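Table S4 entry, Heme-binding protein 1.
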Amino acid sequence: MARITLEDLDGLGEEAAAGGGGDGDNEEEEEEEEERGRLFAHWEAVASTHRVSLPRDMAGPIVQMTRHNQAREPVPYVTLSQHEKCKEAAYEERWYPAGKWACVTKGEPMYEQSISMSFMKLMRYICKENSVGCYLGMTVPVLNEIHLTKEGTELEREVVTAYYLPGEFQQNPPVPTDPEIHITERAPLWVITRVFYGMTTEETILREIGLFWELLGSTDTVLRETYIVAAYENPSIPQRRNEIWFICRAK
């Protein structure tokens, strides 16, 4: 995400502590160091495409999230209805219960910069910079709440990036060490969602919002200035899965 994402990171500290003496251990440490360097270089390249610099202290979280890449807890929800067009899935309605989220708000010049910088903060929180001092676990999707200008032709600069706390931490969320991360209990959410694939930029988001409106037609049941972009996959995946969420008005 340069938008740098939760799937590629962890622990320099743990690996250093695990080292012992002996040639075998030294070789293993060298291999681990090479792997850290390779992963960091990869994510540095991803970040540069979004005009974001990747700090060296992100090397640990990157390794840890890579190791836990397959262990991702889905945010709980209930499917209310599914809709098809030309016999293909077009969109679906979902209800998400109230829950606790770790949120960061950024207002950088580019959408990609805002979500990338926010996600790096959330990665550090997930990977130890919290009051329990351990890896919390990844959940998907990561949400990016956006707002359109009154003209509806551009995104407002401010973006809220939100990470759902895993089930075991919902009742007692670990406290972030970063004061820019806020634990928020978000109200239940009723949304209409549509999948799209590829990179998420202001241009692609505005296009997807327009396509979704064409599909839905005229309706006043959803908000027109606030939307959510849900990210499910690693940003290094060219055709990664995303969703546009239209937020339904309370009944």
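Residues 1-21 have pLDDT under 50 and may be disordered.
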